[in-house]
Each structure stands twice: as C-alpha cells, then as structure tokens.
Give the backbone structure.
Amino acid sequence: MATLVINSGSSSVKFALFDTLSEACLASGIAECLGTENATGELIVPGEKNRPINLRKGATATDAMHAIVAALRLSPALKNVDVTALGHRVVHGGERFSGPELVTDEVISGIRDLCSLAPLHNAPNASGIEAAQAVFPKAPNIVVFDTAFYQTIAPKVYRYAVPENLYTDHAVRRYGFHGTSHQFVSTEAVKRLSLDLNNHRLLSAHLGNGCSATAIVNGKAVDTSMGITPLEGMVMGTRSGNVDPNLHGYIVDQTGMTLKEVTEMLNKVSGLLGLSGTSNDMRTLTAHHLNGDSRATLAIEVFCFRLARELAGLMVSLEGTPDALLFTGGIGENSRIVREITVKQLAAFGFALDLESNLSNGRDRGGVISPDGTSPAVLVVPTNEELAIARATKAILS
Ligand code: ADP
C-alpha cells in the first residue's frame, strides 16, 4: 500500500511515493515543462538508476500522471506497489479550509473559487486533482492546504487596516503560507526538545526560494510573516518581501510601467536576485560573497537583517519567551552564514549560537546549534512537506 503525494503546478507535476505503513519514501520525481515542446520528466527510485518519464510534446497534467504511473511500473522495486491514496498540496484554502479534506466535487469547486487569491497556484492544483482522479479512479484523494495552519490566528493579526468592505467583499486579509512545513518542523522540534505539548512557544523560519516565518504557541500558529499573497514579509529569492505600499504607484509614475509589470517585478526579479544583480541562489551568492563581491554581501546582509527583524516582530505574538527558534528549508538547513548573521542580530533577545554545532548540524539530520543548556534553543530541523502530506492523507482516511 502506497500514498502518492502530488504537487501540481502551472507547468510541472512533482510527486513522491510513500509506503503507507513504514513512511519510507519509495520514489520521487518531477514531470516538467508541461504544455510545451520540451515536456520532460525524471523518476528517482532509491537504489536504482534514475529513469526518464516519457512525455509527448505539449503533455498535460493528465498525460504526466499516466506517464508517472508507467515509469513507476518499470521499476523492479515498484511494479507491485498499489497506490491506495493520493495526497495533494493546494496553496490557497482561504477562510474555507482549515485542515486537510477528502476531495469531493464541492471541495474542487471550493479550490477553484479561491483562484482569484492564488491564480498561479490553485487552478493547476485543482487540475492536478482531476488528473489524479482520472488516472486512479478508485483511490481517494486528500487535499492539504498551505494556508490551513494559519486559520487559528486572531483577527488583530490577520486584518489589514483598510476599509472593512475589502475584507467582507473581497477576502482581503493576511493568510500565511508554508503552513505544512512550519507545522511539520515545529512538531518535530517539540519532540526533539521534549517540550510540553500544551506549553511551548516557537519561532520557525522556512527559508527556501520562498521564505516565511511563523510564531507558534502550543502547536497552533499565532502569526506569520506572509500576507494575502506570498509576497509579504522577508526578502526571498526573487521576491522583494515588504515594501512601502506606495511603491507601486511611485514606480508606475516614474517609469511608465503598468501595475501588472510592477507586481511581476516585485515577485520575479527582486529579492536576492534584485539586490545582487546576479543570482537568486544562496549557494551562488555565498560563493560570490566569499570572493569579495560587495553586492552579494549586501544581498545576504539585507536578507538576514530583514529575517531577524521579522522574527523579533513575531515574538510579540508569542506573548512570552520563545523556547526555540527553528531554521528549515534549503537555506535554513544549509547556510551556516545566514544562521550565524541572523542569530547575532537577535542577541538582545537571548539567542546565541554554538559556532561548531552551527557548522556540523546541517540538512541531513539537523540538530541544536545553540550552546548547551541555553534558552531559547536554536535548531535546524529538515522539513519534509511531502511526508507531512502523506501523514495527513493517512490520518484523514483512518
Ligand atoms: P524551494 O522553496 O524551491 O523548495 P529549497 O527549500 O530547496 O527551495 O531552497 C532553495 C534555496 O536553498 C536556494 O537559495 C539554494 O541556494 C539554497 N541552498 C541549498 N543548498 C545550500 C547550501 N549548501 N548552502 C546555502 N544555500 C543552499
């Protein structure tokens, strides 16, 4: 029995296959450049040679799903594996979805109704579910929403100070994203630090291409750095994070760009890429920084400063001293420089690093990187959103 986890985007389908009982990852891969001449894909099975996923030109999400199954069947280890359930990542659940749900026609139309809030994500997410239903007509589908973890945050935290009708008529409020990851790593941290399930306070920093931070009290999210869209908050790979809300109008006036072009610019060519002028990739920027590239250095400094400031702000929502600060995501798990610069700027709040642990406790297992016995603890916790979705799928079905 296996659970297939699907993350269906506008031009790709990422997937991971888990043994439902042991939670072992049996396979993973991606079908990408869908809808183009160059549609291509790869299947990774531990212990086997990577296999191509054969896709025709212009392949759709449904084609991709068929091709993934065909590739799985070619693996000697997997040919008898039975996909008994599917779990889907859905980006926006609005106020309607506050947890994982079994897919019904109403759930799919609910996801489509929220397309105006996440046009680039929810439509392909819904198409991916329909593709899975076509290819696995007997298996139940479960949806897990990136926003659901934040349905516990209070109105004073999620409302913007704008006229009320924007909230009541147009759903304008802060939602929060990366909830699956923050929930997964915070649950893991509670276990690793033997914290009291009903009495703990955590700050969690998910630093990947998208970056967000979350304040968590007793397993529940109480605040997030993100907003109505995943642009709010800290500096990200290509996203600006917070800017003056008047910036859009100013740029339009100064440059003649359209509002749409400004939005595109703030999402696609800003952040680390905009500041450095060379890359959105922290590995590349770190190498450039070590070679004396001052723009790469500035990009890293702004990234860490804005992250530290965001974390300091989130502490207000904890209403008490944090037990721990968690780093996760590609940058959070791997970049000792980012962790070091960020934590240094939080020294006034009692955060400190053990430099040796910061060097050695990376992506593989993570671990505590603050000096022994200090509080708050600082730790690296590798995220695994696919496993979190597989677990949620199993929980709903049982
Ligand atoms: P996504 O949000 O797409 O899932 P990831 O969580 O994989 O992204 O994070 C991607 C980021 O992690 C990139 O900026 C990448 O440079 C960074 N990263 C990965 N490995 C390292 C490393 N060893 N050192 C510094 N940054 C790293």
